[in-house]
Design goal:
Blueprint lengths: L9 H11 L3 H14 L4 H14 L2 H14 L4 H13 L3 H11 L11 H8 L3 H14 L4 H17 L3 H14 L4 H13 L3 H14 L4 H13 L3 H14 L4 H16 L25 H17 L4 H13 L3 H14 L4 H13 L3 H14 L4 H13 L3 H14 L4 H13 L3 H14 L4 H13 L3 H14 L4 H13 L3 H14 L4 H13 L3 H13 L5 H13 L3 H15 L2 H13 L3 H7 L1 H5 L3 H13 L3 H15 L11 H17 L22 H10 L3 H18 L7 H16 L3 H14 L4 H13 L3 H17 L6 H13 L3 H12 L12 H17 L18 H17 L2 H9 L6 H13 L3 H9 L7 H17 L3 H14 L4 H13 L3 H8 L10 H15 L1 H8 L10 H9 L25 H13 L3 H13 L6 H13 L3 H10 L4 H10 L1 H4 L4
Helix pairs in contact: 1-2, 2-3, 3-4, 4-5, 5-6, 7-8, 8-9, 9-10, 9-11, 10-11, 11-12, 12-13, 13-14, 14-15, 15-16, 15-17, 16-17, 17-18, 18-19, 19-20, 19-21, 20-21, 21-22, 22-23, 23-24, 23-25, 24-25, 25-26, 26-27, 27-28, 27-29, 28-29, 29-30, 31-32, 31-33, 32-33, 33-34, 33-36, 36-37, 37-38, ...
Length: 1173
């Protein structure tokens, strides 16, 4: 540390020190003061001009040099300075004038090497090197003066980092003058810079032998001893200095520093941001010992008694206060140091850090801004600014300052470490690795380097690979607290609680007073289920001092887990009093919620909710949901999502894990409230930590949003988690639930095979999982395997009976219906009888009142189907029309009446029943339509409201359209068809209706477009396929129509049009069925399309079915008033050919104006033998 022994030399030395610190403007101010006191001093003028030149004020520097040239025109040092000044400015004229002046008779104002000393003392080592080399060239005497020149040249080269060259120059100087103690000291400094502390120690000792009163050499030797780990020897050396001169303040402060570092047990850098970093890998710490610390404080106070304004004494007191955790006291001491030396950057840095720690952020930033104004190129200033920005959560701005710091000072190891950490935290592993390599290269073998490697691996989620580095770190430095904590936490995170416990105990052997280690030991015990040992470890931590809020929170969690809600609440409230942070208020709310005090829990969240604390908002959402208030829960959830989502331009903002959970919860709440669920936000759940996502809820939400692919991914994530925690050879309810989630997801996507496989896997993992059994049964039934479905339901029923649980009515009803489907009517009736059982008062009943009525309705329906009840039986008049089973019974009765009597009778009976559900009202409309009451049917179906089922809604619309068409309201039918086509997903039946409406408007192309709509199934139904083939024949010709007809499956029960086509093309599509012969009435089923009719007539004639061809030709002409004369003549000819002469004459004479052409046609017999078209 610098010291100023002579008061008269202090201003000059301060100016030179400012120059060496590159604070050129401040140095120029000091030189200006000196020149005002002694305006004629040449060296003050040259020093002032040098400072101004370095500060960039070249004009003022030249003005001073010009004034000095007037007063000292014969001074050689002035002209040498001026010549180099003009050369650097590339001023050829000025440089030439100075060179000419140097050729005149000049003299040296002072020693010939004084200009070299000026440059050297100002830290302008390049200029000093050039001047010394000139003097060496001009020196002819050699001896001591040459040795001095070589020594100073070696010192310049050392300052410039050219250690090898410097060492050579210093050795040459010693060869000329081996008694030069200063040269030995410089050689020692050079060896020290090259990392050879042993040689440096030897040279310092040699210098002290030559000059035993050289306290600076002894202090440098003490520093070497301290750096080499010989702290006790360093203390002895400083004590010997103070014994010789008790008033050396700088020696007292350096000794205080060594004692403080020995007290802490570390090797912290003097006044460096590494001491104040908020980063992840701080320097190691060890418990304090009071003796060295008290002695360091006493030395600082003694130095202040000698020199009350000595800044470094105040600064060292500030360091001691900071190490003791007293930020306020540290700030006071650094303020005094700053007042004593306001331009010293190192003190400004430390004061700014102390202000930040005390919460005076604005003051800290003002100080750091002032430091930047003093020297924009000071690397340490940028380091402190980066540290402050990192603590304020601005990593990218911190990185910019760190990059600038290492650019200015590539040997700044702390800045390289910080840069590596921030790159790693920002997801830039390549840049982090490069920065870490630089830091480790600068400090090889340091424990903090191994800690840094471990930190980078942790950021890459490679904690296992970090363990060897942490082990080496604590081996090299046993008091490296951060490494011990990281090692124990790594074991905890990876589930190795026993290894974590062992690590904590190993660390406690070295640092038994480290409270965080007792906390880690408590956590290890807690995770191993050793709550008593965990509580004991917490008590040991409490014995070392007040428990920090984190450990109080652990105490609350332990008490809550033991059901001791009062003790848990007391610990949580103590944590709030100790810290007051929102996280601990959250803990209080969680404890209250666990105790069932939901209202009090919400009240405890009031303060955090006002600050929009995300954890509080998430917990409030859960509490509202538990209270049954889904609307309030969704509102809180949406409010939290707005806060935790990243903002534009802030790539590191947001809270993705919390946002993912809230997105899932909001989707479920929206689904619960029947609101639409957006799929895109839910995709963010896959970009966060898988352990932070409730995958079952995510799968349900994604399926509700229609994103089935991601829903399946979420279900598989849940399966992976559950199976990793399950035992392979044992039943596991969580694994069964996970597989059931996948089955439900596959079912939502209509992937029935995958759903069934997943449901079967769920049953395998837990055979008593009732939802899995029910789903497996439903899927087996869907797959056409009712026996497998029955087996699942019987197994579930037996499982409930084994465990003594109440019979599940849903299971029994599904089982009864399956048995009915398998024609096991007696077994189905037995199931319904079980559901109809009512036990005596006071006993448990299998079913509730509505379930009993529903079971009675189903029993009556089965008895009706089995002929055990008549249509007028009183059992058919059961109960509550709101029950779907009662409506089902009504449907069965109406259909039975339609089969046994008529559609009119069934419609009359159904109309008399009160409160028909939409399904039965649609059935009533169909019955009225079949009974010949289309207008009444249309009005009834049009009035139906409240239909939520898409299929039923489509059926209702179809019935209304057909009814209006049958009633002659073709325009109304077409409008209703257009509305239905746009409102509901079409099916084949609606497509046929739409096509018929278009045909009624003579728009064949629109009809075909409706039948070929891409929303329809690829395999057409019979009606859609036949109509599509007819329209293809009409528009594209017979080959196109036959191609479409070939894709239509031949039904077992053949309708009229199928019978007609099989007669027309017996070998092209469907062979005639003798059991279902074609009749003349069947020709009226064909659509009245001219080209279609012509093609069918021609085909019938070719097949020998003249009777059918004649009937079809006659029907086509009679229904078309716009038939051409050729079509009428052809029909007449075909009628004659079929022997129907009377019908031919009537047709011929009914169309006046055609008789001549018709007679000619009959005479020549052209039409019969010619083509139809």
């Amino acid at each position: 540390m610098a010291a100023f022994d002579q008061a008269e030399d202090r201003p000059t030395n301060e100016a030179e020190e400012l120059m060496r610190q590159k604070r050129f403007a401040d140095a120029a101010a000091r030189y200006h003061d000196l020149r005002r006191r002694e305006p004629s001093d040449l060296w003050f003028a040259l020093g002032h001009a040098s400072a101004l030149e370095c500060a960039g004020d070249v004009d003022r520097a030249q003005q001073i040099l010009d004034e000095a040239a007037v007063r000292h025109r014969a001074a050689a040092p002035l002209h040498r300075f001026r010549r180099l000044f003009f050369v650097r400015r590339e001023d050829v004229g000025g440089a030439a004038a100075s060179r000419l002046a140097l050729e005149q008779q000049l003299f040296d104002d002072g020693p010939v090497d004084q200009l070299a000393d000026l440059y050297f003392n100002q830290g302008r080592y390049r200029e000093a090197q050039a001047e010394l080399e000139r003097l060496l060239r001009e020196d002819e005497d050699g001896g001591a003066f040459r040795a001095s020149l070589l020594a100073r040249l070696g010192a310049c080269l050392r300052q410039l980092g050219e250690f090898d060259h410097a060492r050579g120059m210093l050795l040459q100087a010693l060869a000329l003058d081996d008694d030069a103690a200063w040269t030995l000291v410089e050689l020692a400094e050079t060896e020290r810079g090259m990392g050879d502390n042993e040689s440096a120690r030897r040279h310092y000792q040699d210098a002290l032998e030559l000059r035993g009163d050289d306290h600076f050499a002894r202090a440098h030797l003490a520093q070497v001893e301290h750096e080499s780990g010989n702290t006790d020897r360093a203390v002895e050396l400083y004590e010997s200095i103070l014994a010789a001169d008790p008033k050396l303040t700088w020696a007292k402060i350096e000794l205080a520093q060594v004692l403080a570092e020995r007290d802490r047990g570390g090797d912290d850098e003097e006044l460096d941001p590494a001491d104040s970093t908020g980063g992840e890998a701080p320097p190691a710490e060890s418990p304090a010992e009071e003796s060295d610390r008290d002695r360091a404080v006493a030395l600082c106070r003694s130095a202040l008694r000698d020199d009350p304004e000595f800044p470094w004494a105040h600064a060292q007191l500030g360091q001691l206060a900071k190490q003791a955790g007293d930020a306020a006291a540290a700030r006071v001491h650094f303020l005094r140091a700053h007042a004593a030396s306001p331009q010293t950057l190192r003190l400004i840095h430390e004061l700014a850090d102390a202000c930040r720690r005390c919460g005076h952020r604005d003051e800290a930033w003002r100080l750091l801004d002032r430091a930047l104004e003093i020297d924009p190129n000071d690397a340490t200033t940028h380091g402190y600014r980066a540290d402050a920005l990192r603590n304020e959560g601005k990593p990218e701005q911190a990185v910019a300052h760190l990059v600038k710091a290492v650019e200015l000072d590539p040997g700044y190891a702390w800045a390289w470490r910080e840069l590596a950490e921030l790159h790693a935290l920002s997801g830039r592993p390549g840049e982090a690795e490069s920065a870490a390599e630089e830091a480790i290269r600068l400090e090889p073998g340091a424990a903090v380097g191994e800690g840094l490697r471990a930190f980078l691996l942790r950021c890459r989620d490679e904690r296992s690979a970090a363990i060897p580095h942490l082990e080496r770190a604590v081996e090299r430095e046993p008091t490296y607290l951060w490494a011990w904590r990281e090692l124990a936490e790594t074991h905890l995170m990876q589930g190795r609680t026993e290894a974590a416990e062992t690590t904590a105990k190993r660390a406690l052997e070295v640092m038994p007073e480290a409270q965080p280690l007792w906390g880690l030991l408590a956590e290890a015990h807690r995770r191993r289920g050793q709550r008593g040992e965990a509580a004991t470890a917490l008590e040991r931590a409490a014995a070392l001092g007040e428990l920090p809020p984190q450990l109080l929170a652990m105490r609350a969690e332990l008490a809550a887990a033991a059901g001791e809600h009062a003790a848990a609440l007391a610990a949580a409230e103590q944590a709030v009093r100790r810290d007051g942070g929102d996280d601990y208020r959250l803990l209080v709310a969680q404890v209250l919620a666990n105790a069932g005090r939901l209202g009090d829990a919400l009240a405890a969240l009031a303060a955090p909710l006002e600050k929009n604390h995300l954890g509080a908002l998430e917990l409030a959402c859960i509490l509202h949901e538990r209270q049954g208030d889904a609307v309030a829960a969704l509102a809180v959830c949406e409010r939290a999502l707005v806060i935790c989502s990243p903002k534009d331009g802030d790539s590191h903002g947001g809270h993705p894990e919390i946002a993912a959970r809230l997105t899932v919860r909001s989707a479920l709440l929206a689904r619960q409230l029947n609101r639409p669920v957006a799929a895109q936000p839910l995709a963010t759940v896959f970009a966060v930590d898988p352990d932070a996502v409730p995958w079952r809820d995510a799968a349900v939400a994604l399926a509700a949003a229609g994103n089935l692919l991601d829903a399946r991914r979420a279900a598989w994530r849940q399966i992976e988690r559950a199976e990793s925690e399950a035992t392979a050879d044992e039943s596991d309810a969580d694994a069964a639930t996970a597989w059931l989630t996948l089955a439900e997801t596959e079912l939502a996507g209509q992937h029935l095979t995958g759903a069934r496989l997943a449901a079967e896997r769920a049953v395998d993992r837990d055979g008593r999982c009732l939802p899995a059994r029910l789903l497996a049964a439903a899927l087996a039934e869907q797959a056409g395997e009712p026996d497998a479905a029955i087996a699942h339901l019987r197994a579930a029923d037996a499982g409930l009976a084994e465990t003594g649980q109440t019979v599940d009515p849903v299971l029994l009803r599904q089982l009864a219906r399956l048995l009915e489907h398998r024609d096991q009517t007696e077994a189905a009736l037995a199931i319904w009888e079980r559901l109809c059982v009512q036990r005596s008062a006071g006993d448990q009943q299998i079913t509730s009142g509505p379930q009993h009525a529903a079971a009675q309705a189903e029993r009556s329906r089965l008895r009706l189907a089995g002929g055990q009840l008549g249509l007028n039986a009183p059992e058919l008049a059961i109960g509550d029309p709101a029950l779907p089973e009662v409506q089902h019974l009504r449907r069965s009765v109406a259909l039975a009446l339609a089969r046994s009597e008529s559609s009119a009778a069934a419609a009359d009976w159904l109309k008399a029943q009160p409160e028909l559900d939409p399904t039965n009202r649609v059935l009533l409309g169909r019955l009225l339509l079949d009974a010949g009451k289309p207008r009444e049917a249309a009005d009834l179906v049009a009035a139906i409201t409240g239909i939520t089922d898409v299929g039923l809604d489509r059926l209702a619309r179809s019935v209304e359209i057909r009814a209006r068409f049958a009633a002659g309201d073709r325009e109304g039918a077409r409008k209703r068809a257009d509305i239905a086509w746009q409102s509901v997903p079409p099916d084949d039946d609606l497509a046929v209706i739409m096509a018929e409406c278009q045909l009624a408007c003579r728009d064949v192309s629109a009809a075909r477009a409706a039948l070929d709509d891409p929303r329809l199934p690829a395999q057409p139904s019979l009606a859609r396929g036949l109509l599509s083939a007819c329209l293809a024949i009409e528009q594209d010709g017979l080959p196109a129509g036959m191609a479409r007809l070939g894709r239509v499956p031949v039904p077992d029960e053949r309708p009229p049009l199928v019978r007609l086509f099989s007669a027309a093309w017996p070998r092209a599509w469907a062979a005639p069925d003798p059991a279902q012969p074609v009749s003349l009435d069947d020709v009226r089923s064909i659509p009245p399309l001219p080209r279609l009719v012509a093609a069918v007539v021609e085909a019938l004639l070719s097949a020998g079915r003249t009777d059918l061809a004649a009937e079809l030709a006659l029907a086509a002409v009679c229904t078309r008033p716009d038939a051409t004369s050729r079509e009428v003549a052809s029909a007449v000819a075909i009628l004659h050919r079929a022997g129907r002469h009377r019908d031919a004459r009537q047709l011929a004479f009914s169309r006046g104006g055609w008789r001549t052409r018709l007679a000619e046609a009959l005479f020549l017999n052209r039409i019969v033998t010619g083509p139809w078209s």
